[in-house]
Structures are given as C-alpha cells and as structure tokens.
Amino acid sequence: MRRNEFEELVRRALVELPDTFIDQLDNVDVLVRRWPTSRQRTANGLGSNETLLGLYEGIPQTDRAGYNLVLPDTITLFQGPIEAAGETPQEIMDQVRATVVHEVAHHFGISDEELEEWGVA
Fold this sequence. Notes:
Elements: H1 3-15, H2 19-24, E1 28-33, H3 38-43, E2 54-57, E3 73-78, H4 79-85, H5 89-107, H6 112-117
Parallel strand pairs: 1-3
Antiparallel strand pairs: 2-3
Helix pairs in contact: 1-5, 4-5
C-alpha cells in the first residue's frame, strides 16, 4: 500500500473517534512511520523478532500536573507491521482503527492491562 493511502486510513480512523475524545486530544501529534526503530522496540521490551503496530510516547493526560511548554506527545502507527497483520484491505483498515483506539487510550492514561480487561487490547 502506498504511504498516502495508509495515511488516509489513519485520518479516517481518527475522524471516526467519538467527538468527546477528539475534543479532548491535547498536545498530541499522530505520525506514520514504516517500521519501529530498534530503540522503540528495546524501550518496550521487545526482542528482535517482535514489533509494534503503534506507540504512544508522551505524558498521559492523567499525569499532567503543572503541564506547560511541553513538546507534543506522539502517537505513531507503523505501516509495515500493520499491513503484515492483515491480508485484505478491510483487515488492514480494522487494524488501523484498533491501533488508533489503543494508542489514543494511552494518551488518556488507560493502561494495556485495563484495555485487556475490557477486551480492547
């Protein structure tokens, strides 16, 4: 899939979020990268054969005491791993949506454990 097509899937997934979440996204950039870096994989405890579909890097809203003059948080979606996780265009779109929701949840301070408990992880 071409990069601009993948970026359009990400845009659509963001637009489909409920307005209450979109209105509360604060100081966060959404990026698309082809693959996670070795630093990103290592920082998340992943081995050389493991990868990330998405990554939230920043200060969750629940931890933002005295928060000002701070660079934006980033939500990165990794095109290569997401495409590898789906066989059809619909499966890739579904994975993009799930990854966007997962990473936006981290922005709001929701942990992987909570997402797993809710059946969203």
